[in-house]
Design brief:
The chain is α/β, with parallel strands linked by helices. The chain is 50% helix and 13% strand. A five-stranded parallel sheet has the order 2-1-3-4-5, with helices on both faces. A five-stranded parallel sheet has the order 7-10-13-6-14. A two-stranded antiparallel sheet has the order 8-9. The longest helix has 27 residues, at 109-135. Bound molecules: adenosine-5'-triphosphate (ATP) and magnesium ion. Magnesium ion binds next to helix 7.
Length: 455
């Protein structure tokens, strides 16, 4: 299919020339003698205009105004500006405002054609990228991760978003289950609201009326009839967080609603149909809860249609530097501080630590470090004690493996580290190391001779 260019130029000779050059090169053309005519073309046939070539100064509507309208109408259509010597400044302004490039008159035909070709190639590439983004949202909003388990999770989120089946998110505390639930909702294209319900936080005696709502007469004492959280999620997504904490008595009623796509408010005789999508999350072993009789098996199977496992942070240390960067900018933005770097030693410690509290623990550690940091750098000292201690110990092992250290070199590193931690107290260090003092002194003499710093 031939690409079609719209040419807006008030000078007849120039317009004819542009048209001829473009047609000879195999493009289809539409012509306009000013911006207003050009815009009329775009509004009528904007679907099939691949490129706009426009003059700057024209009567009725200038190239600049045309550019603004064209961008509002269809921002991906490239606009090339043809400018006379006297209007170069305006042409530059137009490029800043989103035009592809400008060309000064008089120009060589081949320069024009090369520019046209590049502009079309670029807009085709942009369209392709937009299409890929639409079809396969690789990283759903705000979830950071590039490790293989996270990329797999992104794929599964995309699949889950396309289906209407219930989603069960399993993962340790702080792994980002709520983020995953929101991502499923946001990529699912459901127009309604995302309604999070923390099943652990609602008292057992209130949960039924919170979920299903109630009529005015359901309780003693005058109360307003009220819609429940399930109704609020009509057309959207109901997120049952910590679903393992859902009290047993309310489970059959929830199951019925999910099966029938209908709810009955507490005290009501009539059912109301709802368009429901349920996403549930838990850090418990729900199968075990089922075996122990603490969770209904039928409800479990109803919720466990699509299962998303969120891997703990220690299984994807690869993602730690990315998360650190993300949390640092989040914290500096929130506190309006200038952005901070993370020293490579601090990063090594952060990467080596096992993060039992997962991303949430990391986020808290970074918030604290940002508050503590002096100057422009986050240093090991700014990290929480427990992270620093176990992180630097495993960082030492990791580094020794990477650098092919010998046992002797490792011993040296270890002895020097212990000495640093005792604040240079050699008797205390010897005690901790299980060495007699004489041996420690001999070792330190050797290290000093080898040029170890700080001795
Ligand atoms: N992959 C990630 N990218 C960016 N931020 C993350 C990521 N994972 C977790 N977080 C952040 O860590 C914090 C904890 O995440 P979230 O609340 O989703 O965890 P959770 O799995 O629901 O935990 P819990 O089981 O304790 O409720 C949030 O502030 C979240 O924004
Ligand atoms: Mg949560």
């Amino acid at each position: 299919m031939r690409e079609r260019a719209l040419i807006a130029e008030d000078n007849d000779d120039m317009r004819d020339l542009l048209q001829e050059v473009m047609e000879d090169a195999g493009y289809e053309t539409l012509v306009a003698a000013n911006g207003r005519q050009a815009l009329a073309h775009m509004e009528k046939e904007h679907e099939v205009i691949d490129l706009v070539i426009t003059d700057v100064r024209m009567p009725e509507m200038t190239g600049r105004d045309l550019l603004a309208k064209a961008r509002a109408l269809r921002s991906e259509t490239p606009v090339i500006v043809i400018t006379a010597f006297g209007s170069v400044e305006q042409a530059v302004e137009m490029v800043k405002a989103g035009a592809y490039q400008y060309l000064t008159k008089p120009f060589e035909n081949r320069d024009l054609l090369r520019m046209v070709e590049e502009a079309l190639e670029r807009s085709a590439a942009q369209r392709e990228q937009a299409r890929l983004r639409r079809e396969r949202p690789t990283a759903p909003p705000r979830i950071i991760g590039a490790s293989r388990p996270m990329r797999e999770l992104f794929d599964h989120i995309a699949l889950a978003a396309r289906s209407k089946g219930a989603v069960l998110i399993i993962g340790e505390s702080g792994t980002g289950k709520e983020l995953v639930a929101r991502a499923v909702h946001e990529t699912s294209g459901r127009d309604g609201t995302f309604v999070p319900v923390n099943c652990a936080a609602i008292p057992a005696e209130l949960i039924e009326s919170e979920l299903f709502g109630h009529t005015g007469s359901a309780f003693t004492g005058a109360r307003q009839p009220r819609a429940g959280l399930i109704e609020a999620a009509d057309g959207g997504t109901l997120f049952l967080d910590e679903v393992g904490e859902l009290p047993l008595p309310v489970q059959p009623k929830l199951l019925r609603s999910l099966q029938d796509g209908a709810i009955r408010r507490v005290g009501a005789n009539v059912e109301k149909s709802v368009d429901l999508r349920v996403v549930a999350a838990t850090n418990r072993d729900l199968e075990q809860d089922v075996r122990d009789g603490r969770f209904r098996e039928d409800l479990f199977w109803r919720l466990n249609v699509i299962r998303l496992n969120v891997p703990p942070l220690r299984e994807r240390p690869f993602d730690i530097p990315l998360l650190v960067e993300h949390f640092v900018s989040k914290a500096t933005e929130a506190t309006k501080r200038p952005t901070l770097d993370v020293s490579s030693e601090a990063l090594a410690i952060l990467t080596a630590y096992s993060w039992p509290g997962n991303a949430r623990e990391l986020e808290n550690a970074i918030e604290r470090a940002v508050a503590f940091a002096r100057g422009t750098m986050i240093a090991p000292d700014d990290l929480p004690e427990r992270v620093r201690t176990s992180g630097s110990a495993s960082a030492l092992i990791a580094r020794s493996v990477e650098q092919n250290m010998t046992i002797r070199e490792m011993e040296r590193e270890y002895i020097l580290e212990v000495l640093r931690r005792t604040g240079g107290n050699k008797s205390r260090a010897a005690e901790l190391l299980g060495l007699d003092r004489k041996t420690l002194y001999r070792r330190l003499d050797e290290y000093r001779a080898e040029g170890a710093p700080g001795l």
